[in-house]
Amino acid sequence: MRMTKQRKLILDVLKKSHMPQSAEMIYEKLPDDNVNLSTVYRTLDTFYGEGVLSKSTMKNTSYFYVSSQDHHHYMICLGCQTMYEIECHLDHLTEHVAKDHHFKITHHDMTVYGYCETCQKNMNLL
Ligand SMILES: [Zn+2]
Ligand SMILES: [Zn+2]
Percentage of residues in the chain with pLDDT exceeding 90? Predict the structure, then answer.
């Protein structure tokens, strides 16, 4: 993979972030003023296509995180937008479907959406 300076800067911001980041959030954290927002968007899309990054979407905004780094997924509350890091248990499943369909899986992505306990209480769902 070709690693230009811009790609490295963007990846560094994500590696240092504890939570998934949107393009705007990454853009604000970039130390280099020469990188513009559309470059950030484009680079994130490329990384996503290559499987370097995973993403979760909330209110039409994509939040990216590094896929390889201690592989995990996120569960997001649609009420308060809290993100919970969750373990991945998809390995067994992907192994199966790959075999059944003679499919060569490169990576996968998953996000769980719903409402946290507090939000359920606020909405009288409990
Ligand atoms: Zn909530
Ligand atoms: Zn996974």
Answer: 67
Distance (angstroms) between ligand 2 centre and the Cα of 33 equals 34
Q: How far is the CA of 22 from the centre of ligand 1 (A)?
A: 19
Give the global pTM: 0.78
SS3 114: strand
Least confident of 1-10, 95-104, 106-115: 1-10
> CB–CB of 79/122 below 8 Å?
yes
Q: Which ligand is nearest to the CA of 67?
A: 2
* Structural domains in the chain plus CATH codes: 5-122 (3.30.1490.190)
